[in-house]
Write a structure and sequence with these properties.
- The chain is an alpha+beta fold.
- The chain folds into two domains: 98 residues, Immunoglobulin-like (Sandwich), CATH 2.60.40; 376 residues, no CATH class.
- The protein is 48% helix and 11% strand.
- The chain is globular, with a radius of gyration of 28 Å.
Length: 556
Amino acid sequence: MDQALITFQNQLTEEVQVYYTSDYCHKCVYQLLARVKPNNSSSSVIVSTKFTLTIQVDTKPRNNSLCKWSQTYGEGGQYLIDIGVSEVLSEPSCRQIIQKSPKNVYLPLLVAALVFVFLSVLFATGPYIYRRRNTSKFIRAICCRSPQYSMDNNEPPESDKPKSARLQSLDTFRGFALTIMVFVNYGGGGYWFFQHAPWNGLTVADLVMPWFVFIIGTSVVLAFTSMQRRGVGRGQLIRKVAWRTLVLLLLGFCFLNYSPRDGPLSWSWLRVPGVLQRLGVTYLVLSLLQTFWGQISVPLRTKPFQDLTLYWPQWLIMVLLETLWLCLTFLLPVPNCPTGYLGAGGIGDDGLYPNCTGGAAGLIDRWMFGDNMFRYPTCREMYQTTQPFDPEGILGTINSVLMGFLGMQAGKIIIFYRGSNVSILGRFVVWAVLLGISAAILTKCTRDAGFIPVNKNLWSLSFVTCLGCFSFLLLGAMYFIIDVRGWWRGQPFIYPGTNSILVYVGHSLLGFYFPFSWDMRLWDSHWELLFMNLWGTALWVLISYLLYRKRFFLKI
């Protein structure tokens, strides 16, 4: 899977060396791929098909480049590179021959997408057709003469029934993010864009955690405002916050650090940071902000920017926190590394800073946790790094709080402008535009060449502004479709969205057990892996649906 076979055939009278680098790897040093002896000798190698490769053929010693090209090779393809002398120019040349055509790697995704669309249409139109059938005049005239089915019953129509005060779009957004998170954690079918980016840049897997943090911020404002209006005191709120934070930390530290298949627990590799640990700390900070500096009542007369000005202490604290992140990131001296370094180290940046992975963020985490942190960062394979680096480290948690604070702004907008959907949606769009422009400026609209590149491992400032933009747009769209127009009720995402802790912890603990996964037989294609990952994800959606029907919701 994700591999191709290349055979280099050397017809020259001197040995050649083949070097390669991935175009996704920023300023990476060329690595030796193969040595091919002279006089019609050949050498075969396996290369990755995830990203575009630049391949260069040199003579030995490496002082004369014979040919160089960039290409994305197809999965399962077999290629012959004939290194010889051009008959026209009488100079060395490289001719590529496809010996076996690659597979259509996206066919499993296409089939899965078509099945998903078919099921969506079926579940969307089925109830409507059923209702139309049961309410037709002919059926009513024949079958519905009993008083209990009389058309003159006193039950109020659906539109007159009181609606739940719970924001369904928020539950749906949470469930949507959680469903994608389960899918990518299970493997994402083996596709690279369903896995985290090697360093800079964005993939689908990089979207879900910031969305989840954004939702935490929105939920904190809505929930705490409601409790404070009911007369819940600060002391009781603080006890509730402390308990929930403690449970999240213990769940992440004790249950999700390892699984029984890892064997007995060893303190030497026990990971201190983690996803739930970060969510717990983020929730703690956001909750304290809302507890001490949140507004219980909304002014009767709305004023411009009151959803910002009334919370100036919160803004002051966030500005101080972000200033701390910027100063530590760009001013803290890192031994043997340039100040303000944001790269992956290893063979990146021309191989000048091999032990500088993550710059100041990596230094602080290694000082705080030693080896008790994530040892296999996403940059390890491509950049060939040796330093441990944890994407849930100390500095990144500061920007995680900032991401949640943006979610708090969405909650404040919903509260302050309740009843004016135009104002709510308009402010969502304004926030999205401002954050999008900020991300464009910080990144210079590039992946690697900006002031602060988009980077999930570092939770960089541009990463937060970019994902904040996406979050406001997505929540606004769901709010309009679900809560304003009522075109969609959020199924099936609303079910895991109302039981998020159970689904997250459950899929993490049971993901390697049947029926969520099994020992695969077809490792040479994406078909079985994609089916298994979709099956495991669908099972958790089904479990959350059954619990939803039973009105069982795991709360902490």
